[in-house]
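Q: Hi! First time doing this. I have a protein sequence and I read that you can turn it into a structure. Is that right? Here it is:
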Amino acid sequence: MTISGVCGSTRGKCMNVLVTTTQLVPALAKVLLYGLGDVFPIENIYSATKIGKESCFERIVSRFGKKVTYVVIGDGRDEEFAAKQHNMPFWRISNHGDLVSLHQALELDFL
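A: Yes, that's right. Below is the predicted 3D structure, encoded as structure tokens:
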């Protein structure tokens, strides 16, 4: 699963975008089951099952534009590769400590 953060000129205009290799309906079910519907609105959930993560990233950039800040958060090489292809920073999450570090980086406006 890949989580892409999309931010405008101020942190208050941030939104979360989910890119997953899970098919769309099961992905939506998981988001709702885990109570993440407020974090990931349905229009911000992309399935890379048939088109790949790079194509999803292209669609996201096409939708939100190039004048925003993107941060790709994930645990796999495909997310990292897609992020690099689009010149987006990548934050690897392997354990809880990585999430804590991400939170601190966001709080300090490093990303």
